[in-house]
Design goal:
Keywords: DNA-binding, Transcription, Transcription regulation
Shape: elongated
Strand content: 15-25%
Number of helices: 8
CATH class of the largest domain: Alpha Beta
Organism: Nonomuraea salmonea
Helix content: 40-55%
Protein name: IclR family transcriptional regulator
Largest sheet: 5 strands, antiparallel
InterPro entries: GAF-like_dom_sf, HTH_MetabolicPath_Reg, Tscrpt_reg_IclR_C, Tscrpt_reg_IclR_N, WH-like_DNA-bd_sf, WH_DNA-bd_sf
Domain HTH iclR-type: 17-91
CATH topology of the largest domain: Beta-Lactamase
Low-confidence stretches: 1-7
Strand order of the largest sheet: 4-3-7-6-5
Radius of gyration: 23 Å
Length: 259
């Protein structure tokens, strides 16, 4: 690589960083006191060139970050921002509401329960309620779960972006890809998943829905002796009941035909 090419790459990176920074500055102007904004107002508050602000407005409208207010020159946050905000609020709410339900579930079924949220490419363990049992099976908070885990398959069955779900399962090697997709179809019919791994650990997982779609999974985790794998067991029924109650509290809807 020549020195001139290297300089061009550095300049391109700096321009990308500047573009992200200015986009964030524009979005930061909105708030309870400023639900809508004009080019002139954004120009004045940011101290930027009017043409530059207009160009950013046009680009942000094009990708859904902003939208035009009907019959005016004003703009407001667009669908992408509203969706992201709803998603973030849903994550906060489920983390506040789930612990009490999970503690109640642990007392009833006598095994640990695990709440996972969807990360960039799979479930991340975000909350654990451990059972008081001589044999303790648990999972570490912050653990990234594999795409073939029960929790991941539940997410993949119900993610709003099924194109992304297909892309993720498509990255799995055969025959794991085919088996995972088969299990996802079973989950859509049953409303939940169970799996016993080679170490004899059983995981039974079910979804929790908010108004925007699936927001979390809750799983019961134990040994085969502690936790039956059957989806009509007392433990699985109790887990599903908790997830349905949380779904109702989150303003979500349990899918028709799912168990």
């Amino acid at each position: 690589m020549t020195e001139r090419q290297d300089d061009r790459q550095v300049t391109a990176r700096e321009q990308d960083i500047q573009a992200v920074s200015r986009t964030a500055q524009i979005l930061g102007l909105f708030g309870p006191e400023t639900p809508e904004l004009s080019v002139a107002e954004a120009t004045r508050r940011l101290g930027l060139n009017r043409t530059t602000v207009h160009r950013y407005f046009s680009s942000m409208i094009g990708c859904g970050l902003l939208e035009r207010v009907e019959e005016s020159a004003l703009v407001r946050p667009g669908r992408s921002i509203l969706q992201l905000g709803s998603f973030a609020l849903g994550r906060q709410r489920i983390m506040q509401m789930a612990p009490a339900h999970m503690r109640e579930l642990v007392r009833e079924i006598k095994v640990s329960t695990v709440l996972s949220l969807w990360g960039t490419s799979g479930p991340v363990v975000s909350l654990v309620e451990e059972a008081e049992h001589p044999t303790l099976v648990t999972v570490r908070v912050g653990s990234q779960l594999a795409l073939d885990s029960s929790q991941a398959k539940v997410f993949l069955a119900y993610l709003p972006d099924q194109f992304n779900a297909d892309r993720l399962t498509g990255s799995l090697p055969e025959p794991q890809r085919t088996e995972t997709r088969r299990r996802i179809e079973e989950i859509r019919r049953a409303g939940m998943s169970s799996h016993v791994n080679h170490r004899g650990i059983c995981v039974v997982a079910a979804p929790v829905f908010a108004a925007t779609g699936i927001c979390a999974t809750i799983a019961a985790v134990g040994t085969e002796r502690m936790l039956p794998a059957a989806l009509d067991s007392r433990e699985a029924t109790a887990l599903k009941a908790v997830c349905k109650r949380l779904t109702k509290e989150m303003g979500g809807t349990w899918p028709e035909g799912a168990g």
